[in-house]
Amino acid sequence: HAVARRGGGEPVFGLDAVSGAPIAAVSNYWQPRSSDHLPSDYRAPEVAAGAAPTAHSDMFSYGLLAYVAVQRGGGLPARRSLADKVSVPKDVGGGDRHAYALLKDLLDAQPARRPDALQALKAPYFEQARSTAQIGRA
Question: With a threshold of 0.85, does the pTM exceed it?
Answer without folding.
Answer: no
